[in-house]
Amino acid sequence: MHGSVELNLAASRPLRFAGFFTFYFAQGVPIGLLTIAMPAWLASQGVEAAQIASMMAITGIPWGVKLIAGPFMDRFSFPAMGWRRPWVMAAQGGLTLAMLSMSTVSDPVTELWTVIVIGFVINAFGALQDVAVDGMAIDVLPEDERGRANAFMACGQVAGFSGFGALNGFLLVQYGLPLTALVSALTVLLVFIFVTIIRERAGERLLPWSDGQAYPQRRQQPESFVGIFKDLIKVLFLPMALMLVLVEFFWRANAGIAITIFPVVATQELGFGADQYSYWVGLLGGVSAVVGILFGPLIDRFGAKRLLLIGFFGQACLTASFASLQAFWSHTPMVLSMMAAYELLGHLMFVAMIAAFMNICWKQVAATQFAVYMSLANLSRSIGAALFALVAAELTHPQTFYIMAVLAVIAGSLLLLFDEGKARARLGQLDVVNS
Prior knowledge:
Layout: H1 13-44, H2 49-59, H3 61-64, H4 69-75, H5 85-102, H6 112-140, H7 146-175, H8 177-196, H9 225-236, H10 239-269, H11 274-302, H12 304-324, H13 332-359, H14 366-391, H15 397-415, H16 420-434
Helix pairs in contact: 1-2, 1-6, 1-7, 1-8, 2-6, 4-14, 5-6, 5-8, 6-14, 7-8, 7-11, 7-13, 10-14, 10-15, 11-12, 11-13, 12-13, 12-15
C-alpha cells in the first residue's frame, strides 16, 4: 500500500488482544450506565421499584434476542472491508449516536419512558456489536490463542461496566444525565474511531470509498436465509455440540440460582449492607477479570475442557463446603475468601466456555451459531432462577448451596463425555462437502 503502515488484526497478535479488549470495553460502558448507575440513581430520586424493574426488563430485551442478528451478518457482508468489520463499525457508530441522544434528556425522572426507549436502542446496538465482534473473533483468532483473547475480552467488558458504573454514578449525582451520557458517548466514539483505522486483514479497504480489495476467503457467501438455516441445523445438532450445550445448561442454571441466593444470604444471614455487598462483588469481579488474563495462556496450552473441569468440580467443592460450614458464616474473612475463590473460578470458566464454543463454530455460519450459544446461556440462567423461585421457600440456605454443588458436578460429569476433536473433524468434513 505504497509504503504506508497497515494495522490489521490478522497480522498482529498484540493488536488482536488490544482490539478485542477495546471492543468489549465499549460494550461495558452502556451496561455500567443502564444497569448499575441509572437504577441506583433513579431509586435515590424516589422512582418506584416497579418502574425501575420495567426499565430493566424492557431495555434488556435486545440482549436476549441478539441471535436474530446472526443470520443477517452471515448473509450480508462487504468483504472488501472485511467479513465482520463493516457490521462492527455500523453497530459502534449506532451505539455512539444512541448514547449521544441520551444526553438530550434533562429530567430522567419525568421523562422515564424516553430514557427507556433510548436505553432499548442503546442495548440494541450494543448487542449487535457483541454478535459482530464475536463473529470477527472466530474469523481472525487462531485456535491456539482463543483462550488468551477471550480473557482479554472478558476483562475489557468488566473494566467497562465496573469503571463506568462507578464513574456514571458519581457524574449523575454531581452533574445530571446530560453530561453523564455525553462522557459515555465520547468514550464509545473513541472506540468507533479505533475500528475505522484498523483492518481485519491486509489490503482491505478502510472505508467503502478507499482503495483495497477483499482478502481471499476459504468460504462462500451464503445465498439465502434458508441456506443459512440449513447450514445452522447441520452444526447445531452435531452430538458434541449438543453435549456442550447440555453442559452449559446445568452450569448456567447453577448461575441463575447463584445470582438469586448470594445477595439474600449476604444481607439476611451475614449482615452485609446492600452497598457493602455491591462493593465486594464489584471489587472481586474486577480483580478476577484481571487475574483471568493470566489464565488465558493456560486455556490455549491445556485446552478449555481441562480448565472447565477444574472450575466445575472446584465450584462444587466450594459451595458444598460453604453449606457445611454454616456455623462459621459470621466469620467475614472466611466468607470473603470463599467469595473470591468462587468468583475467580467462575470467571475462568466463563472465558474457557466461550473458547470451547468458538472452537466448535463453523465459519460458514459463525455469527449465527455463536449467537445461538450465547443466547441459550442467558436463557439457561433465567430457567435456573425461575425453577429455584418455585422451591426457594421450601429450602434452607445450606440446602440451596448443596443443590448448586450437585448441578456443578452434573455439568462436569457431562463435560467428560465431550470430545472437541470429534466436533472439529465433523466441521472439517462439512468444509469438504461445502467446497
